[in-house]
Write a structure and sequence with these properties.
α2 runs antiparallel to α6 (146-161) and α3 (46-54) packs across α6. The longest helix has 16 residues, at 146-161. The chain contains 8 helices and 5 strands, in the order αααβαβαβαββαα. The strands form 2 sheets. A 3-stranded parallel beta sheet has the order 1-2-3. Strands 4-5 form a two-stranded antiparallel sheet. The chain is globular. Helix content is 31%, strand content 8%. With 213 residues, the protein is α/β, with parallel strands linked by helices.
């Protein structure tokens, strides 16, 4: 802990080395968050089996403070999208993401969640969950091993370490906007692209609410 939090630019008398630590607000805040990330219980396909294996004693995910898997998005701050993302499942994933409180992060685990994997050309598979929700860390593999998932979690911790309270979106003056839930019809429709779709179809552009209705 001392190596992570100490500021070497501020000298501390030798007699106080064991009792005093000089640090910054960003460093102590990020250290607390990186050491208590709560993933959401959320699996789609075979990658979820590897995620479950990571919770076994052999890998000891508790070393990173991430062993508390939550069963509700309102108590989680990390969504691990593990498995093949079908078009039928995307609206539910976006809805769960919107229910997660800030700060929140998304990890795409495996080739399917990252880019479609071997089902990329399939009619019912999305070519990457990052087309709908912002992804912070990609874990390659088909499926990735538990060690690869742990490496991805370490990369997420490193990203948190470099964040500043002044720059993160959840402390801004404007509240973070929810991601529009895609409309599942003959294909997935993004409400944010309704005006463009209406223009291409030669129809007058209506509001996104009309499309959702």
């Amino acid at each position: 802990m001392e190596n992570e939090l100490n500021d070497p630019n501020v000298p501390v008398p030798d007699e106080l080395q064991s009792a005093v630590t000089i640090t910054s607000l960003d460093r102590i805040y990020n250290w607390g968050r990186r050491s208590s990330i709560w993933p959401m219980v959320f699996g789609l396909a075979c990658c979820a089996i590897e995620m479950i294996c990571t919770a076994a004693s052999r890998f000891d995910i508790a070393r990173f403070g991430m062993e508390v898997f939550r069963a509700t998005p309102r108590q989680a701050d990390l969504m691990i999208v593990s498995g093949t993302v079908t078009k039928k499942m995307v609206p539910q994933i976006v809805r769960l993401f919107n229910q997660m409180p800030e700060p929140k992060y998304v990890m795409a685990m495996g080739a399917c969640a990252s880019g479609g994997g071997p089902f990329k050309e399939g009619y019912n598979v999305v070519s990457g969950i990052d087309k709908f929700v912002p992804v912070d860390v990609y874990v390659p593999g088909c499926p990735p091993t538990p060690q690869a998932l742990l490496h991805g979690l370490i990369k997420l911790q490193q990203k948190i370490d470099n964040q500043s309270i002044k720059a993160v979106r959840w402390y801004g003056q404007n509240a973070s906007e929810a991601v529009p839930i895609p409309v599942l019809g003959p294909d997935l429709l993004d409400p944010r692209q309704h005006a463009l779709l209406a223009q291409q179809a030669g129809q007058p552009g209506d509001s996104a609410e009309t499309l959702e209705a």
